[in-house]
């Protein structure tokens, strides 16, 4: 297969005999670059398994001692694990020691990423590595001999302290690689009343490793030390000591997640931080701690993350406006208390993420000229309706906002490309008139947007207030999340589409919630008035809308009616796609029949079954 570059093999469970099978394929694929193994999840064992083992043993005899069967063209392996793994580790490590890979970290990322695999699975992989190393040591072969240090450093950056210690036992070179790795990550978690508290062993191990750095450069230093036993107060000085070592080694990314006691404690950043010329990223996760004001300037810092901590009144503003003059990205999350007025002013900030603020915040003021991306999640606020939200960001391009309808004061975003709004109207128990005015102000600020995702409640409220008149002249793609389509949704959506002259694609996604708004009767009345106003006008939208996508889930109600009427008035419609699950097939077929009654002969209708 001389032209094969990428190969994906679906397997039911890897056994030892799969190695010679795959090797035979790769030997006749001289240009192959990527091999992907995807598990079907079925615990299948073929009836000819014994015969496969026999043929495999003959393969091993034929190629005994040949460690490089296929040259050096294969550069990446991707493994997607599911179901029974059997001898997956053995197969993959055999592939490694055969000298096939020049980019082993792609495979190991699939193995060792903590958000994909459990601790037990990662231990199994390390056990396989240790076993293979001991076996090959006995045979006089070192599986690390042909691997560059940078690749091994990447592997080590994915391991925790226990796995690193295990790795260091393999050989002298492994120990030296651990001591010299530029990616340092140490983790220790002790649960409340846990008799097997590992903090003593943890501090000894980390201190021993860092004390032998001898000034070797550190790119990334990550310390996660959480102890719920309250016995580690006296060891707190280790955090400052290790941070000093990391800074002295020119650390570029510093990630501190520290929680060593139940009571609140003042946390002061070590003085050395403010003298660093190399620090680019600083992440602080200070459980049970109150972050104090900065005592200097972090001139080179570009990325700051403040998580799970308490802040004093003006501390946040000092960190952002004064201490970080070059800051480009800021993340604020899970602030516990101490701050009610969130004020963010920066001349350099480009990305801002805010979520899970203290429940009693009453004012959020954001003023950043260079801000390109803003993400707000204000669901944690106890009284969001009375919280004032001011955003002055004239160059904003990407907006994501989740929460309720705040008292908003927003600048006009002329360069906005993408917006995702999920506003829970029904949690706001206030008069509809005030909500409509605020939503109209929001729509006015985002009316330059090109791609918009929004929940239908927002448009319903604007429709009730007769405020769906703001032109969305640049809108090309619209995604509306609905709880269940009713007849009144047709005039609501039609009103939106009438003020969107460039809209090309309309997508309707079901949330699956059987929600019926308390103002449903009023919506029905407004809908009847809409029909009277536009009676006989079959082409309300022009011919710009070319595609409709519907994803069905939960209660459908009058979905067929709404979609059929949209098809009827959109004369330029070329394609409609409906995603559905098997249990809704009869409903979908009825909907398909309704659409064909009003559709033009050129309309392409696609029914796609999928898991939703």
TrEMBL record:
Name by which UniProt lists this protein: Uncharacterized protein
Q: Where are the transmembrane segments?
A: none
Instruction: List the SUPFAM superfamilies.
Output: F-box domain, RNI-like
The residues covered by the At1g61320/AtMIF1 LRR domain are 209-513
Source organism per UniProt: Ananas comosus var. bracteatus (red pineapple)
What are the residue boundaries of the F-box domain, all occurrences included? 146-182
